[in-house]
Amino acid sequence: MGFDYALVHLKYTIPPAVGLTWLYRPFFTKLDLYKVVYLILVAVLSTIPWDSYLIRTGIWSYPAHVIIGPKLLDIPLEEVFFFVVQTYNTSVLYLLLSRPTFQPVYLSPERGASRRRWRFTKFAGQIFFSGVILWGWRCIQDDSKGTYTGLILIWAGPFLLMLWTLAYQFILALPLTNTALPIILPTLYLWIVDTLALRRGTWVINTGTKYGVHLWDGLEVEEALFFLVTNSLIVFGQLAFDNALAVLYTFPTLFAKPSLLPSPAVLMRALLTPCSKYDNARLVGLTEAVHRLKRKSRSFYLASATFPGPLRADLLLLYSFCRVADDLVDNASSADEAKDWILKLRKFLDNAYSDSASKPAVEAQVRKDFPVDTQSALLQLPAAKLSHQPLEDLLRGFEMDLAFDKEPMIKTTEDLRVYSERVAGTVAQMCIELIFNWYPSALPAAEQRTIVAAGNTMGVALQYVNIARDIEVDAQIGRVYLPLKWLSEVGLSYDEVLKKPDHAQIESLRKRLLKDAFSLYEKAKDAIERLPVEARGPIRVAVESYMEIGRVLGQDKFKVKAGRATVPKSRRIMVAWKTLNR
């Protein structure tokens, strides 16, 4: 009896597990836990028979003085725990590295020329992994020194072949941070751990079943291969799982109202769905939404990574629509053209929410009235999950902006509140509607409406911060959103602010606006805690990240970039981290 193997865990496998859990804890969802537990079960059940065979045939062994004693099918419990902790660590690292990536946009319908390319790629991979299996078999048959290598390959090869066949698109198309990096990092780490363990004699490989070649002093090539292969299996398993989820949640025409914790049978159905059935228009809409927000709303795109996958997709589509609508109006060459865009947008919404307008009719109107690069944003708007009124109010907010060409629109505090409700409160309200759609609440309908109203209030608070930040920028385009009544109280006129937006008196008005913003924030923030638990942390991050701009503006000196106060990236990350860990 001994504790050498147990000490390997205490020193080298448990600390990374604790650290990775601490890092990822704010993002851990029920679905993440489901994925990790599922893969651990698969890893343990598939590895025990193989490992037991290797021990019983003397390919490797564990001296009695290095293990505590209890065994499962001749496998020391410390070794069984290794299956668990390695799968856990690599899985959580994968989750951490892949979190920022919106994976559904890497699906491909495989039509036309791309179909031939993908088919060739899939077949080439199948040939490769089949060759790996055959090579493993030959190693066992031809040379006893190749036994360990051969057993690794004929055990892992079929799993890799299956996972490749099911998830080759994700394995190849996703960024290396989602694929190669979560394999390479734990593999290198475990190579070091294995080197130390082999030198101490914690586990021993029979000299007659290995080549005797070392990757470096103390690390057998067979052990290096083992950890590379096992980490590849874990990451491939995660990729296959996420591939299934992407199909499940991206194509409502294929899977209507999927469970948030889908069964293995449903996941397999999703993986086996022919790529030719993927809704290409849906994929185009999501891809364009991601590209659009990366260019114009990068802070929101990054913040969206904190939301669970299916909800994130709808939020991206909603923000993409709002961004396109805003750009159509703002970039119009004249007030008349801008009004025309608003009329077309209103017609689109009326059709989208009409019981009499068919889907082809809605599509025809969009194709006729809107530029090609904006059409997907309209057609993929998740209108079925949203109320019509907030979208209509958003257009009214655009109309208020247009009226600035004739006269100042924000005369009183009430005007400011109405404007902010229309351009920002509505968006916050729709975000909460999407949250309740994906995560139904047991709260009474009246209380849910109260939470939605609080969301509108929080949106107003965020818009006040936005206005306080952009006083100089807005003046450059001929607009002042500070109420005329406020200006007169400090002896300023509208035109004076347009000419000199950095006037000394402006700072007092900025602070007044920020005071109102934080008052509304305090009034509405408790409602966040009544949201479904899956959305509380992400909503807190979105709110606190923006309110931090207000806190920076409240300081005597703040950093300005392109006429706007900015929050250093390190500070934003710290705010998000603290917020998620509440």
From TrEMBL:
Pathway: Carotenoid biosynthesis; beta-carotene biosynthesis; Carotenoid biosynthesis; phytoene biosynthesis; all-trans-phytoene from geranylgeranyl diphosphate: step 1/1. It catalyses: all-trans-lycopene = gamma-carotene; 2 (2E,6E,10E)-geranylgeranyl diphosphate = 15-cis-phytoene + 2 diphosphate; gamma-carotene = all-trans-beta-carotene. The keyword ATP-binding does not apply. Keywords: Carotenoid biosynthesis, Isomerase, Membrane, Multifunctional enzyme, Transferase, Transmembrane, Transmembrane helix. The keyword Cell membrane does not apply. GO terms for biological process: carotenoid biosynthetic process. The chain crosses the membrane at residues 6-24, 36-55, 80-97, 118-136, 148-166, 173-192. GO terms for cellular component: membrane. It is a multi-pass membrane protein. It is found in: Membrane. InterPro entries: Isoprenoid_synthase_dom_sf (IPR008949), Lycopene_cyclase_dom (IPR017825), Squ/phyt_synthse (IPR002060), Squalene/phytoene_synthase_CS (IPR019845), Trans_IPPS_bact-type (IPR044843), Trans_IPPS_HH (IPR033904). PANTHER family: BIFUNCTIONAL LYCOPENE CYCLASE/PHYTOENE SYNTHASE (PTHR31480). This is Bifunctional lycopene cyclase/phytoene synthase. It comes from Alternaria atra.
